[in-house]
């Protein structure tokens, strides 16, 4: 069997921002494989954004603090690479795309990063056309950002990041400004990018139900420590998740309750449609 490459690794890692007395991340040991789609959850203030910053190198290169242990991204120590080098490996999408889109047109915005890393015109054109197509935003190419909806802005932000051809994409609450339908479309798009291009994705997202069909792994953080990590299908049925403020989707909660009543299912059904099918099968 083909073994998957480890693309992100934390070894005995701890971090505290300078000035703070308690560590924000503690004893983090973590391994993410190439092609994983990881959902990162936990209560507000538990350290999710901080953990992402350790992957894209903003920690320790921009934020100072006590940094212990190792973070390895694509075989190299993050602390030895500068943020620009890391940006070609790790794409970062903010919660608010306004922070990411600042040029006068969608096209200019997408090529900005490519020009910055000194790519040739020809390669820039190829990548521009590719991301416009991959994200279905060809029609927005010459539009100024202020004419775009939030969902369109989020796609443009991701296009700019994807054009850099990163191996890893990290997203910090990317759907918080989107309505449920647009949020779902956006998450499905991430699922497609993960499948089609083998992109490793880590997303912080409170709306877990949106992610259950695309993410394969989950990490639950609490007070700076990992309390659960592993296969989403395995961990999502753990009733202790509620203790950590993780809003388990109703369809999972229902299965957990039924299990308490000795109604056992062979597998975990992650969405209503599949679960309904199973119920129907049993009733007939
Ligand atoms: N730049 C900073 N300097 C000092 N402390 C910080 C800094 N950024 C975050 N913190 C502290 O680190 C802790 C973790 O913050 P972080 O932003 O990583 O949490 P989070 O899990 O992303 O929370 P949320 O769900 O609210 O976004 C918090 O106690 C926060 O106050
Ligand atoms: Mg955060």
Structure description:
With 284 residues, this protein is of the alpha/beta class. It folds into 3 domains: 1-89 and 166-234, Rossmann fold (3-Layer(aba) Sandwich), CATH 3.40.50.300; 104-163, no CATH class; 249-284, no CATH class. Helix content is 37%, strand content 23%. The chain has 11 helices and 10 strands. It has helices at 48-56, 58-61, 83-87, 106-116, 121-134, 150-162, 180-197, 208-211, 232-235, 250-260, 272-283, and strands spanning 6-17, 25-33, 37-41, 65-73, 76-77, 90-93, 168-172, 200-204, 217-222, 225-231. The strands form 2 sheets. The protein has a 6-stranded mixed beta sheet with strand order 6-7-8-3-9-10, sandwiched between helices. A hairpin with a 2-residue loop joins β4 and β5 (76-77). α4 packs across α5, α4 runs parallel beside α6 (150-162) and α5 (121-134) crosses α6. The radius of gyration is 20 Å and the shape is globular. The mean pLDDT is 91.
Any low-confidence stretches, pLDDT <50, length ≥5?
none
Query: How many helices?
Result: 11
Q: Report the CATH architecture of the largest domain.
A: 3-Layer(aba) Sandwich
CATH superfamily of the largest domain: P-loop containing nucleotide triphosphate hydrolases
| Total tally of structural domains | 3
Shape: globular
- Please state how the strands of the largest beta sheet are arranged side by side: 6-7-8-3-9-10
Structural class: alpha/beta
Strand content: 15-25%
Bound molecules: adenosine-5'-triphosphate, magnesium ion
Summarize this structure as a short list of keywords or feature phrases:
Rossmann fold; 37% helix; alpha/beta; four-stranded antiparallel beta sheet; 284 residues; binds magnesium ion; 11 helices; 3 domains; six-stranded mixed beta sheet; globular; binds adenosine-5'-triphosphate
């Amino acid at each position: 069997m083909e073994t998957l490459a480890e693309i992100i690794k934390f070894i005995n890692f701890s971090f505290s921002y300078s000035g703070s007395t308690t560590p924000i991340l503690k004893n983090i040991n973590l391994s993410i494989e190439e092609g994983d789609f990881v959902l990162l959850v936990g209560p507000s203030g538990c350290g999710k954004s901080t953990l992402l910053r350790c992957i894209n190198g903003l920690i320790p290169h921009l934020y100072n603090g006590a940094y212990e242990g190792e973070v390895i991204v694509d075989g190299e120590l993050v602390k030895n690479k500068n943020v620009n080098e890391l940006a070609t490996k790790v794409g970062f999408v903010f919660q608010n795309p306004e922070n990411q889109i600042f040029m006068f047109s969608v096209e200019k915005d997408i090529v900005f990063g490519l020009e910055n890393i000194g790519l040739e015109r020809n390669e820039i054109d190829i990548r521009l056309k590719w991301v416009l197509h991959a994200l279905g935003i060809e029609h927005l190419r010459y539009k100024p950002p202020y004419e775009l909806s939030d969902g369109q802005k989020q796609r443009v932000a991701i296009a700019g990041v994807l054009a850099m051809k990163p191996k890893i994409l990290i997203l910090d609450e990317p759907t918080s400004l989107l309505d449920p339908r647009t949020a779902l479309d956006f998450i499905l798009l991430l699922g497609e990018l993960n499948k089609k291009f083998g992109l490793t994705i880590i997303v912080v997202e409170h709306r877990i139900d949106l992610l259950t069909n695309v993410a394969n792994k989950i990490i639950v953080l609490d007070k700076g420590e990992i309390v659960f990590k592993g296969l989403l299908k395995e961990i999502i049925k753990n009733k202790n998740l509620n203790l950590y403020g993780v809003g388990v989707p109703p369809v999972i909660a229902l299965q957990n309750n039924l299990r308490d009543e000795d109604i056992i299912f062979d597998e975990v059904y992650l969405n209503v449609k599949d679960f309904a099918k199973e119920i129907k099968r049993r009733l007939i």
